[in-house]
Amino acid sequence: MAPYQNMEEYNITITNDIKERFSKIIGEIGEDVSRDGLLKTPERAAKAMLFLTQGYQQDAAEILKGAMFEEEYDDMVIIKNIELYSLCEHHMLPFFGKAHVAYIPNGHIVGLSKIPRIVDVFARRLQVQERLTHDILECLNNTLKPKGVAVVIEASHMCMMMRGVQKQNSVTTTSGFRGQFEKIETRNEFLKLIGSDLS
Ligand SMILES: Nc1nc2c(ncn2[C@@H]2O[C@H](COP(=O)(O)OP(=O)(O)OP(=O)(O)O)[C@@H](O)[C@H]2O)c(=O)[nH]1
Ligand SMILES: [Zn+2]
C-alpha cells in the first residue's frame, strides 16, 4: 500500500495491472485480443477476479464485533443453507455449495446477517474447503466466544467436474465442531436439524 495515495488509486492500479496480464493470457491461448467481443474482456475479468477475492481486504472478526449483543439465550442458533462461492487454491476454479453454521451463545448473540457475511469473507479468497471450514469456525469461536460452534460445508468443485477426474455428482462434506458440539448428542441434534446424513 505504501506507494499509493489512497485506496482508490491502489484499486485502479491493481485493476489495470491484472487487466494487462489477462490480455496477455487471452492472446497466448490463441485468441485475438483486439476482436470486438474481447475488447473489454481483460478489464471485466480483472474486476471479476478482484470481486471474487475481496475477502483479502476484509476483517471477519471486525464484522462480527460490529453486531454482538448481550443476551441470555443459551440454546442452539442455526443458520443453514448459506450459499457460498469460492475459488480452489490449486486451479483457481470455483467450488460452490452450502454452509451450515451453528453456535450456542455464552452471554452474547450476533446479528444474524453477520454469519453469511463472514462465510463470504473467507470464501472470497483462494481456499481449500477444509481451511474455509476452519476459518469460519475459529473466527466465531475466538470472537464470539460461544459455548459451542459448528460448521458444515457441502460443496462441488469445478476442478473435479469440468477437468481432471470429471465427476459431475460428487459432493465434498467438511465439518468442524468446538465446545458443546464436541458432545455427540449436541452434534447429532445440529446434524439432524440441518438435515445432514452425517449423524
Ligand atoms: N483437499 C482438498 N483438495 C482440493 C480442494 N480443491 C481442489 N483439490 C484437489 O487438489 C488436488 C491437486 O492435486 P494435483 O495432483 O497437484 O493437481 P492435478 O494434477 O491438477 O490433479 P487432478 O485434479 O487429479 O487432475 C486435486 O486432487 C484436487 O481435487 C479442496 O478444497 N480440498
Ligand atoms: Zn482445484
Task: Please characterize this protein's 3D structure.
Residues 18-194 form the GTP cyclohydrolase I domain. Homopolymer. One of its GO terms (molecular function) is GTP cyclohydrolase I activity. Keywords: GTP-binding, Hydrolase, Metal-binding, Nucleotide-binding, One-carbon metabolism, Zinc. With 199 residues, this protein is an alpha+beta fold. The protein has two domains: 7-52, Orthogonal Bundle (GTP Cyclohydrolase I, Chain A, domain 1), CATH 1.10.286.10; 59-193, GTP Cyclohydrolase I, domain 2. 40% of the residues lie in helices and 25% in strands. It has helices at 7-28, 41-52, 60-65, 114-123, 129-144, 158-161, 184-193; strands spanning 68-70, 77-88, 94-104, 108-110, 126-127, 148-157, 172-179. It has a five-stranded mixed β-sheet, with helices on both faces. It has a two-stranded antiparallel ribbon with strand order 1-4. The model has no long low-confidence stretch (mean pLDDT 96). Residues 88, 90, 128-130, 157, 159-160, 164-165 line the site of guanosine-5'-triphosphate.
Give a short summary of the structure.
The protein contains seven helices and seven strands. The protein is an alpha+beta fold. The protein is flat.
